[in-house]
Amino acid sequence: MTSKSKKRAVATEVDQVVTCDDEASIASFANDDDESFFQDIDVLQSHGINIVDLKKLKSAGICTIKGIMMCTKKRLCNIKGLSEQKVEKIKEACCKLDTGGFLTALQFSDKRKNIFRITTGSQDLDKLLGGGMESMAITEAFGEFRTGKTQLSHTLCVTAQMPSQGFTGGKVIFIDTENTFRPDRLRSIAERFNLDQNAVLDNILYARAYTSEHQYELLDLIAAKCHEECGTFKLVIVDSIMALFRVDFSGRGELSERQQKLAQMLSRLQKISEEYNMVVFVTNQMTSDPGATMSFQADPKKPIGGNILAHASTTRLSLRKGRGENRIAKIYDSPDLPESEATFAISAGGITDSKE
Ligand SMILES: Nc1ncnc2c1ncn2[C@@H]1O[C@H](COP(=O)(O)OP(=O)(O)OP(=O)(O)O)[C@@H](O)[C@H]1O
Ligand SMILES: [Mg+2]
């Protein structure tokens, strides 16, 4: 037996657990009483919507009933070939399938039981995050250069594939805006966890985005891909979310347009995370705050993206350099985590606990 064949084969495990017609796996994400979770829009045919119009929706990345419910009529009308009348009819048909109204808090808490967490590779960092990176939410990590944002992204690409308590493991989509994605880094990380390296790489879909528009268009592909292989993808990474927006929009004159486009993109990401129960991890850069020196602020640097990004990210993690390979993470904003800190380290095998 070669050393390679002794390794755990991630891909086959993943493929077995999550094929589209494997009802058990779908049930693990979707509640029985929430049948619309992955419900294909094709069911609308029996409600009088014709297949050509359904195709138009799909080409715009809207593939599930939930996906339609998450879109405004205005956005649907903007899809080529869909008139206001047709949109009205589609919305009406969806309402019959998904009331989209109130749940009791108890029902909602049942729904949240589908949420899973992906380990970061460091137990201390996981603890800080309440057990790892949470699905159905956007987690943002920001910090100066060399603080480990890209290293954390790479580590998550691998750990997302490892089954753990209550989590089956799954595939990953990586959007790279800075050309810093390195498959060889993934190999060393896979080796640390004793995983089959090629299988790990084979489970990651990679796209290099060159403009902010391209970055946005890729989200349609993500939605289509997630729908095609429903339940297979567990993690979407955008490293980094702001880099291209910074280039494409310059100066104060274009700021409001930039923020508007950014808001659309983040709202799309947020919906994808909820619609397909996925972890969305984005990295962000920092800028010096010119007003800060005047106000004697302790930390004159702040994440870019303004209020739009601040409100879209569910959990914001601030990273800074510690001694040597150590890095310090701090919860900057979260709906349910206290503002505390954890130290982790960057190693050849990715993010790990600090030895200090
Ligand atoms: N194979 C490796 N083994 C150990 N440490 C590594 C390895 N590769 C990179 N590093 C460390 O990771 C750090 C770089 O981290 P990373 O690329 O994640 O930064 P970043 O926060 O993404 O920065 P930027 O803002 O420039 O994108 C460097 O300090 C480098 O020494
Ligand atoms: Mg980076």
Automatic annotation (TrEMBL):
The places in or outside the cell where this protein is found are: Nucleus
- Kindly give the Pfam families that the UniProt entry links to this protein: HHH_5 (PF14520), Rad51 (PF08423)
Any single GO molecular-function term of the entry would be: ATP binding
Q: Which GO terms describe its biological process?
A: chromosome organization involved in meiotic cell cycle; DNA recombinase assembly; DNA strand invasion; mitotic recombination; reciprocal meiotic recombination
**Which superkingdom heads the taxonomic lineage of this protein's source?**
Eukaryota
One GO CC annotation, please? Answer: condensed nuclear chromosome
Annotated RecA family profile domain ranges read: 114-286, 293-356
Annotated keywords: ATP-binding, Cell cycle, DNA-binding, Meiosis, Nucleotide-binding, Nucleus
Q: Does the record carry Cell membrane as a key word?
A: no
Q: Which InterPro entries match?
A: AAA+_ATPase, Dmc1, DNA_recomb/repair_RecA-like, Rad51_C, RecA_ATP-bd, RecA_monomer-monomer_interface
- NCBIfam families the UniProt entry points to: PRK04301.1 (NF003301), recomb_DMC1 (TIGR02238)
- Role, per record: Participates in meiotic recombination, specifically in homologous strand assimilation, which is required for the resolution of meiotic double-strand breaks.
Q: What family is reported?
A: Belongs to the RecA family. DMC1 subfamily.
Q: Quaternary arrangement and interactors, per the entry? A: Double stacked ring-shaped homooctamer. Interacts with BRCA2. Interacts with the MND1-PSMC3IP heterodimer. Interacts with RAD51AP1; the interaction is direct and stimulates DMC1-mediated homologous recombination.
* The name this protein goes by in its record: Meiotic recombination protein DMC1/LIM15 homolog
